Amino acid sequence: MPAPASASAPPAAAALLHATVPVLASLDLDESAAFYADRLGFAIALRTADYLIAERDGCELHFWLCGERHIAENTSCYLRGDVRALHAEFTRRGLASERPVERAWGMRELYVIDPHGNLLKFGEPCEPSPDPRHDSPLP
């Protein structure tokens, strides 16, 4: 008689993956370091001739030196966080950006484009819009 499925399943293993880290293109690593530190509050953890690592609140962003602007302009990453508080902080730091928007798919989002064209989407869950065809800007 075969053993029940639960009896034959291997014990749960510890998670082997711990994070996803975007690697974004930078046309000028010094300019990227200044923007992410001064405007977005990241600390620079590593800077070499062709690579940069910025950290904030347990999140990392990596940058590689790239000479082609169209690569950065066609790249984005998604960061989860309190978008209203981030918008307020970024504004205090001198970043001009649109206010967060509640998207029809149930996310409150803030979009920031860095000096080289990388799109950073900051988001957090919210109630989906009653009319999924429209986004709702926050007051």
Structural write-up:
The protein is of the alpha+beta class and 139 residues long. It has a single domain (21-137), classed as 2,3-Dihydroxybiphenyl 1,2-Dioxygenase, domain 1. Helices cover 20% and strands 32% of the residues. The chain has 4 helices and 9 strands. The strands form 2 sheets. It has a 5-stranded mixed beta sheet, with helices on one face. Strands 1-4-3-2 form a 4-stranded mixed beta sheet.
List the helices and strands and how they pair.
Blueprint: H1 5-8, E1 23-26, H2 29-38, E2 43-47, E3 51-56, E4 59-65, H3 69-72, E5 76-80, H4 83-92, E6 101-102, E7 107-113, E8 119-125, E9 136-137
Parallel strand pairs: 1-4, 5-8
Antiparallel strand pairs: 2-3, 3-4, 6-7, 6-9, 7-8
